[in-house]
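Tutorial, part two.
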Amino acid sequence: MRNYSTPKQIMKPKEKTLQLIKQIAYTYRVMKINGKQIAYCLN
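Running the prediction step on this input gives:
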């Protein structure tokens, strides 16, 4: 039996998923140099 996500489950991610997204957003930044966007890591 397969486990499929319902739209309600997709709309409310688990707390662990939210923490991962927040950590990535905090760690990685984007800056513009000469009109180009460059991603860099703060670690």
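The first strand starts at residue 28 and ends at 33. In part three we will examine how such features are distributed along the chain.
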